[in-house]
Amino acid sequence: MRKYSTCPECGHSNLYASKDISSGGGYAPNYLPDLGSFFSSAKFTVVVCRDCGLTRFFASHKALDALPGSKEWSRL
User: For 16-71, how does the pLDDT look when each residue is reduced to its tens digit (9 = 90+)?
Assistant: First the structure.
C-alpha cells in the first residue's frame, strides 16, 4: 500500500483511503481502459482529505505495470 502523508491542497494529514475499487465496466465508464484483463477492469484507490474534500484517484501497481504496452495510453 502507498503512503499518503499530507493533502497537497490544504497541507493537513486527515486522509482516508478506500479499498481497491474497480475502474469501470458494466454500465460504468472505464476510467483505466486497456490496463485490466478481459474479465476484470483495472483497480484504483480513492484518497479523500477530511479537511478540504480534495479527492484523488491512484491506479493500482498492476495497472501501472500495464501502461507501457497499452495501445490506449501514450506517454506525454
Answer: 999 999 998 778 888 999 999 888 899 999 999 999 999 999 999 999 999 999 99
Local structure of 16: helix, strand or coil: strand
CA–CA dist 57, 61 (Å, integer) = 13
Determine whether 2 is exposed, middle or buried from the number of CB atoms within 10 Å of its CB (0-12, 13-18, 19+). Answer: exposed
CA distance linking residue 49 with residue 53, whole number of Å: 5
pTM greater than 0.70 (yes/no): yes
Distance CA 40, CA 56 (A): 22
